[in-house]
Specification:
Length: 230
């Protein structure tokens, strides 16, 4: 503690001794690398939780962290001063996708590396991280092929047996969940089935075969939750 107080008293000037061109290089390189990360994020994103402001935030975080690392340098007093200043900031926007957190940490890591003059390491890390992100996106790493569906049919009772024959031919499993007779006044009952399609069979095939059976059949299909990447 005495050493920290002594250091604080000796150097209270927070102005960096870094050369101007070094600072320009840090800002330009960190912005470029963070932009590459943001570009990869945009083009590998899937689902409905995309935010353009988050992609821009990745770039801002990258060069801001780089500047912070330049200011801190090896000065412990500056580190504590910046921690105190940053502690008053409150972030209340929840991150909807855990993958977004990974890209944010990538930008922070790049900013820290560039700010401490590990230029080659930061460039290699950015190229490697973007390559892995593109590779995962290209081959769907971590996704599970879910072939579960919920099928709702409004049809006459006499068509039921023919529909179930189609389901038996196209589904590895199917279960009649409920029958709603209230729709009878509109021309039939409502039947709800849970389906698991056979491998190599898509839902469009099932729908085409059912609608070809009887044009009066009203069909609604709900894709299983596991098949939707939110």
């Amino acid at each position: 503690m005495d050493e920290l107080i002594k250091q604080s008293g000796v150097d209270l000037n927070l102005v960096s001794t870094v050369a101007t061109w070094d600072m320009v290089l840090v800002l330009v390189l960190s912005t470029f690398l963070a932009t590459a990360i943001a570009y990869t994020y945009v083009h590998t994103h899937s689902g409905i939780s995309y935010s353009a402001s988050f992609a821009q935030t990745i770039v801002f975080v990258g060069f801001t962290i780089a500047l912070i690392m330049v200011i801190i340098g090896s000065n412990v007093a500056r580190a504590f001063a910046l921690v105190g200043a940053m502690s008053i900031v409150r972030f209340r926007n929840p991150v909807k996708d855990s993958r977004d957190v990974a890209f944010l940490f990538m930008a922070m890591a790049v900013g820290m590396a560039v700010g401490t003059k590990f230029y080659v390491f930061s460039t290699i890390f950015t190229a490697f991280g973007c390559f892995i992100a593109v590779l995962f996106h290209r081959f769907g790493f971590g996704t599970i092929a879910d072939r579960n569906y919920v099928l709702r049919l409004r049809m006459a009772a006499e068509v039921k047996d023919a529909v179930q024959q189609i389901l038996a031919a196209t589904c590895s499993e199917y279960t009649l969940v409920s029958v709603d007779p209230l729709a009878r006044a509109e021309g039939g009952n409502d039947y709800i089935y849970e389906l698991r399609l056979k491998r190599g069979v898509d839902y469009e095939t099932v729908l085409d075969r059912i609608t070809a059976l009887d044009r009066q059949v009203a069909v609604s299909l709900l894709i299983g939750a596991g098949a939707v990447d939110a």
